[in-house]
Design goal:
The protein is mostly helical. It has seven helices and no strands.
């Protein structure tokens, strides 16, 4: 009887082996690259827009493709890997902005077809995008808030300059762009230095 009862009981499940998890791969902070690419490309373009070095407008073409465009876009992809929605959206978007800008510079027929109003609409759209990124930045750090606020003013001045044709307003956008580039360079400098030195050397002013 004991044998019969025992044979009718469900078999005890074997202990399942503990799942093996692959170790998480640590990657470098892509913000230093993203901010540096944005800063340097913006700086060179702003030298032309401000009227300080007009020929910088030609020199920025390669930067718009390779550094401001491809390198910054790649930084955005790595921010996705790190789970940073803000950084991923910002770097990928502005990387795409520089790629689109490169396209306009290297396809004169497209730029001519767009005209001043078309370029103004292009810049207006980026102004709107930068405004809502500025609002999102209020939960990050003071450096990013200052950067996106300055970038908003840069896009706004360039937008107005394109729609109105007023050279002074366009040049004002160039001067504000130089400030924007300086802030982004500081952010890149801070991230790479703090990470390398493994302590806060240059504060970013966290707001969280």
């Amino acid at each position: 009887m004991t044998t019969i009862l025992t044979s009718t009981l469900p078999a005890r499940p074997e202990t399942a082996p503990a799942p093996e998890y692959a170790p998480r791969i640590a990657i470098a902070d892509p913000a230093a690259l993203g901010l540096g690419a944005f800063a340097l490309t913006t700086f060179v373009l702003s030298l032309a827009n401000s009227g300080l070095i007009p020929s910088a407008g030609a020199a920025v073409i390669g930067l718009a493709l390779f550094y401001g465009g491809i390198a910054q876009f790649a930084a955005g992809m790595w921010e996705f890997v790190k789970g940073n929605t803000f950084g991923a959206t910002a770097f990928t978007s502005y990387g795409a902005f520089w790629l689109a800008f490169w396209w306009l510079l290297t396809h004169p027929e497209t730029e001519a077809a767009a005209g001043a109003d078309g370029i103004g609409a292009f810049l207006l759209a980026w102004t709107i995008f930068t405004v809502f990124m500025t609002i999102a930045a209020l939960k990050t750090n003071r450096m990013l808030v200052a950067l996106f606020a300055a970038a908003t003013l840069t896009f706004l001045a360039l937008t107005v300059g394109s729609f109105t044709g007023i050279v002074g307003v366009h040049q004002l956008g160039g001067w504000i762009g130089l400030v924007t580039a300086g802030i982004a360079w500081y952010g890149s400098f801070a991230v790479v230095t703090n990470t390398t030195w493994k302590r806060t050397v240059l504060p970013l002013g966290h707001l969280r």
